[in-house]
Amino acid sequence: MSIALQLRELLRSGIHRIGELEIQTDVYGYPYVICHHEDAERSTDSAFGGLEVHEGPADARDLSTYAPDGSYRFAKGQTNLKQGWVMALENEEDLRLALDQFYPAGVGLFLASRAGALETETLREKLDRQTGMYRFARTISDAGAQRLVREVCGPAHQCAKKILWRIAPETPLEDSEASRYNGIPGGLAESQAIPLLCREACNHFVAECRKAAKAENDARSEAT
Amino acid sequence: MPIAPKPSSALLIVGHGSTENPDSSTPYFEHADEIRSRGIFAEVHCCFWKEEPSMREAGYLVDSEEIYVVPDFISEGYFTQDVIPRELRLTGPTTVVGGKTYHYCLPVGVHRSMTGLILKRAREVAPGVDPAQTTLIITGHGTGLNQNSTKAIRDQVELIAASGAGYAAVLDAFMEEQPFIAGWDKMALTPNVIVVPFFISDGLHSYQDIPVLLGIENEVGAAASQREIFRHNPHHVRNKTLYYTSAIGTERLLADVILDQVSDFDRIHKLS
Ligand code: SF4
């Protein structure tokens, strides 16, 4: 079954949220309508409650690229999605297309994980594959990496993803709010949302590893 | 030659992407939209090195069993020869990974149809300007790191010079190697000069660095004002009339070059 059809099944089973997006079905003749979950109530008022209406998935990239303060949302799990709009979609293919702009591969990753087919990648594997100036990131200590998870990931740092990776095969993440997070912002029950999954450390995390590795290196040189 | 529909295949466009500049990946998404709108493939997706979805996540996006991978890169080099095959686990032109068949096409920038795109860009930016009074300069980064991008630009220069387009001269110039773009006015003997940046996206190079080297801007400006650079043509600087285009990859018709690479792949590897 295609990802779009599986998505339809998920919605029929009671799921209505992914990340910060609320997915509504059958609104004013549209099979699917998505909006920021904080706008969900308003969007059901007449004329979509005066929210800016986007028909079709074409504007999904623009809506997901900038935060309300105009900054670039380079990590898609960031919990700073703009409000004030609705997107009306004709079918599940368009819905899937739109969701893949807001949360790239989000639905596919969840379906694979549910089917036991999602491969994850340790932080060490990810860092070992970096090129150019990011190569240095691989020298970060395990302790440094564990600290970064607490300081970079999780909703306290605006990331809504559930971390599936380890530092290395034998080194799981230490327990913290970030490592425990379930990928569902807004405190919804797991039966009602597609969790956002982090199968490999993101580029933002890699960049932070590089900075921390440099600081560790500087500290070592000072000590000798 | 129009490409035959491939209703059971996916197209995967691979780009570099950036964690700092959102404009960097805009062309990839535009090329994907354009191709999607033509209904040739069952699905069209993008994936990136520095943005989401990553190349390793791309497999989870795709329903189709057969996937054409086109690097939306300007030349062959470290990314197309090492990084992309490694990330997608490709071992040759065609590789089966996780039950799906991946066909790995050549990057857009090396296709011969790029020549037509450059000429189109040049004509559009300088309408009515006599080519015989004009030097066309194709510019790129140029470093020891990627000799192939330098070669891709030199190849285009030769092709355009031989194309009969009628420019007084067609030259290559680089930010960081000889001949330097900063000396454009000395290289060009004509009153008019057209500069086309041979990059996929309008990243910092074409918005910020090159305009300073050309003398259009005094200093590296703020990102928000960069689009203006392309609107204020022609620029009257250093006693010449200078036309500066946006990066060649921002051309919507680059979608055609992506499709050309798919057709070429089929012709060469599938004998269809
Ligand atoms: S590595 Fe951390 S910050 Fe980056 S996407 Fe994953 S959970 Fe979020």
From TrEMBL, chain A:
Pfam family, one: DR2241
Top-level lineage group: Bacteria
Limits of the DR2241 stabilising domain: 14-107
Limits of the DR2241 4Fe-4S iron-sulfur cluster binding domain: 116-211
Annotated protein name in UniProt: Uncharacterized protein
Lineage: Bacteria, Pseudomonadati, Verrucomicrobiota, Verrucomicrobiia, Verrucomicrobiales
Automatic annotation (TrEMBL), chain B:
Domain of life: Bacteria
Record's keyword terms, sorted: Lyase, Metal-binding
CDD domains: CbiX_SirB_N (cd03416)
Record-linked Gene3D superfamilies: 3.40.50.1400
Pfam family, one: CbiX
A GO MF label: lyase activity
Protein name, as recorded: Cobalamin biosynthesis protein CbiX
